[in-house]
Amino acid sequence: MTMRPYLLASDLDGTLIPTHRSAQGLREVAELVDAFQANQQLLLAYVTGRHLSLAQAGIEEVGLPSPDWYVCDVGTSVYRRKNGDFEPDETYRQAMRAAYGGLVGDDIRHAIGTVAGMELQEEDKQAEFKVSYYTRGRPEPLVDTVQSRLGKACVNLNLVASYDPVAERGLLDVLPAGIAKDYAVRYLQRQSGVDEQHLVYAGDSGNDRAAMLAGYPAIVVGNADDALKKDLVTESAPRGLADQIYFAEHASARGVLEGLRHFGALKR
Ligand SMILES: [Mg+2]
Asked: How far apart, in whole angstroms, are the C-alpha atoms of residue 32 and residue 15?
């Protein structure tokens, strides 16, 4: 009897890629990679806010293996492996186009205009279906202002706020309505055909929240935002998901390894 495969769908920065590239952090990544290699039944998807090229650069930098899928730009693009290369999943792209309600990034930037304490991220962090800003301090207080600038267009949009404790700045992404990492993760589950209980999600920050509450086993790495941990405790219980969310003791890659063992996704 063959073992039914697991799919690890994991965030990169702060989760599989340690925030500080210390020798210890890199050793922990190498331990996790050894565990992946010893478990051929584990499929891999990297689910990141990064662009494809920056995601590929990031995994090479720390020695993570090439995955089966990349979900980039906070869930707004999916790339599948084909002949050793990655190509955009066109079905997914069409779904994004529909979800954005015919808007393009420029329409959104224009409507939002200038907001004190907020600036557009670099051009290489913008994507076809994602407009991204940095905020001074936490982004949450600016959400109302952004929403009012967007007005009626808001029905087609979703604002995702997270905080980067290392750079001490907020991140605010404007995505198509209903689209975040969780939407892409559901899509991957259908595409991969793995059982719901065999898809394990791992993450560390606000843009992982929806995916962690999507009903799949989820690993919250030890270095995750305290506000996120508290929120997940509060939100998971009424949804009956308390047992589905594992708060790892260890940070980053070692926390992911700990969580995969907890959920039985690794043979050893
Ligand atoms: Mg992260």
From this structure: 12
Contact between 7 and 43 under an 8 Å Cβ cutoff? The reply is: yes
Distance CA 230, CA 71 (A): 26
Report the alpha-carbon distance of residue 39 to residue 268 in Å, rounded.
8
Q: pTM for the full model? A: 0.87
From the CA of 49, how far away is ligand 1's center (Å)?
Answer: 8
What does the chain come to in residues?
A: 268
Task: Indicate if the pLDDT at residue 1 is higher than 60.
Answer: no
240: Cα separation from own chain's centroid: 22
Q: Give the tens place of pLDDT for each residue, 186-237.
A: 999 999 999 999 999 999 998 899 999 999 999 999 999 899 999 999 999 9
Q: Which residues are placed with Cβ below 5 angstroms of ligand 1, an ion? A: 11, 13-14, 204-205
**Pairing outcome for strands 77-82 and 69-72:** antiparallel
Phi-psi region of 82 (alpha: psi -120 to 50; beta: other; left: phi over 0): beta
Tokens of 37: 């290699």
Domains of the chain, CATH where assigned: 6-94+179-262 (3.40.50.1000), 101-176 (3.90.1070.10)
Q: How far apart are CA 43 and CA 229, in angstroms?
A: 26
Give residue 246 CA to ligand 1 midpoint distance, Å. Answer: 16
Structure confidence at residue 180 (pLDDT): 84
